[in-house]
Write a structure and sequence with these properties.
By secondary structure, this protein is an alpha+beta fold.
């Protein structure tokens, strides 16, 4: 008969180390795929739709949880820093000076 001494604490530490390593890999994969599949296409669509060079760069991304917690379920979130500007490009904006006259604002490449 073979007798094997198994230390439960050593096994728990090994499993926890593997879980942390897996969580880091999942976090990196979520971030890279989020940028590739969500952020870059949003920037490209904005560039084509609004014919602008600056507005596509307003798209930002966050990965939650923000701290490098060892979670197996990270979330990727993309958002724009300038939604009002994009809406103005889409709908056209009216500029009304204090004198009361109205001017139509037409977005161009250099604005």
């Amino acid at each position: 008969m073979i007798r094997v001494d198994i230390d439960p604490n050593a096994i728990a530490k090994a499993v926890e180390g593997e879980r942390i390593a897996l969580a880091k890999r999942v976090r990196l994969a979520t971030e890279s795929s989020g940028r590739e599949l969500l952020l870059e296409p949003l920037r490209m669509m904005t560039r084509k739709a609004l014919n602008s060079k600056k507005l596509p760069t307003t798209w930002r991304a966050n990965l939650y949880p923000k701290e490098a917690r060892h979670t197996l379920t990270p979330a990727f979130f993309a958002f724009s820093r300038a939604p009002e500007i994009m809406i103005a490009f889409e709908e056209g904006a009216t500029i009304q000076p204090l004198a009361g006259k109205r001017y139509l604002w037409i977005p161009t490449e250099n604005v």
